[in-house]
Design goal:
GNL1-like, 0% strand, mainly alpha, rod-shaped, 1 helix, 31 residues
């Protein structure tokens, strides 16, 4: 179960990182 959860968390974390980078670029563009 733990391994399965880790597998689901892997893509989620990567997606969060991409969103964070996109948000940073947007904030920079706004500035």
């Amino acid at each position: 179960l733990e391994e399965n959860e880790n597998l689901v968390l892997t893509p989620f974390e990567k997606n969060l990182d991409i969103w964070r980078q996109l948000w940073r670029v947007l904030e920079r563009s706004d500035l």
